Amino acid sequence: MSPAGRTAMDVIDAHGHIGRWSAFAVPDGSAESLVAMMDRCGVATACVSHLLAVGPDARAGNALLLEALEAHPGRLLGWAVYQPHDPQAPERLRDLLDVPGVIGVKLHPEVHETALDDRAYTPAFEAAAGRRRLVLAHSQHGSPWSDARHFAAVSPRHPGVPLLMGHAGLFPEGLRPAMEAADRCPDLVLETCGSRMTARHLVRMVAGIGAGRVAFGSDAVFLDLRTGLGRVLLAGLPEADREQVLHGTMDTLLKGIV
Amino acid sequence: MTTVVDVNRTLGPLPHDDVPSRDEAGLVAELERLRIDTACVVHSHAVHGDPRDGNDPLAHVGDPRLRPVPVLVPGPLGTGPWAGGAPLVRLCPRRHGWSLSGPHAHRLLAELAAHGTAVLLAWDEVTSGEVHRLAAAGPAPRVVLTGTGYRALRELAELLETHPSLYVDTSTLCGHRQVEWVAGRYGAHRVLFGTGAPVTDDAGPRYLLDTLDLPAADAALIAGGNALRLLDGAP
Q1: What is the ipTM of this complex?
Q2: What is the pLDDT of residues A133-150, one digit of tens each?
Q3: In this complex, do B207 and A233 lie within 8 Å of one another by their Cβ atoms?
Q4: For testing the chain A interface, which of B34, B151, B158, B201 should be mutated: the one with the most A CBs within 10 Å?
């Protein structure tokens, strides 16, 4: 199999998951299933959080994440979920960020019903800053918790901390506000996953803010890795931009972390 | 060489975006770029304008790679009795404001079944209960459920398990290995390649088609074999 003519296995998936989810069926949410799909598509590395941690139990889910990282060294990197309602979250996060393979913190303002610019997340950003790690947050256009305006508000408070805007607004109508926020905030990076995203919108994103500010993400195993990857592989992008999105942006962000 | 048929595509401009398929040349160029041999196309005038005259532009489609799919509406304010003429049609009951369970719809569905005409029906146009009733009624046409999304797998599985006249397209069947799961459980003959483009993405489903973890014969059915069978009116 040749993913649109590529031979290198160097793709980095910035936004993935293992586990299962409440609202719908994931027939196989195992790390083994994800790694097998990565092998099938030429994806070298996936940066994942555990869906149990995103959902009801960050403590248990983050523990499962560490087991998966240990089982698949080099193939899976970890986002530790920060649960803003857990009084022990700050110290737990600091410990998690010291574990090899954990590259940063995952915030999900939608699930936790806490706006991204709420001060409840300050310890998470500070822990990321102190250990030179990344932050990935779910975004959703029009949401009271994770609209582009929340990213534009919080990012300048933590200069130097790379903040990935998961889904780049999620809906097509959210793309322009996401790009405007990225234009204003130098530490914002737009990540590409979502079932509403199209190759056409991806091309606009890259043309608007530059491939260096865009990172490929799939949302596997929530979504199928192939639909997100195919969107980048088959988009009408210049080859240099395609490579930048597929791995260049994350290569730069992960330098010094792994 | 496997024939690739996109069973779910729109020709014409969209009200909410600028799309290359606003005209026939743009759509054909997109198909060529993505190595799609044939596309079953509704016209955007029929979906987003008035379906009573919105199908007219389909009569001017010249490229043989584009297979016209009229959008039908039942009743006295609809598109008229169905006398055949296209193997595949689309119904948009919610968007066009009519009831799938009413007597007008019942008459139209019986006409479609009598002519062997298959139906595209988008998941956001109906409830799963309506689909159950449609498929259980007799006579019922074959229905391809489009845009089912990754969240509907449990409901979709129940429908496919209960009604052999139901099929599904791949446009947003985008949960992890969902296409393989559906094909493995209900048979590859129930799954048709469709993108929903340009409203939904074409590149992702196209790449998924190239990387299916299925026997080659099953992948060929999904890519185009099943669609060609429907378009030929074969059972």
Answers
A1: 0.94
A2: 999 999 999 999 999 999
A3: yes
A4: B201
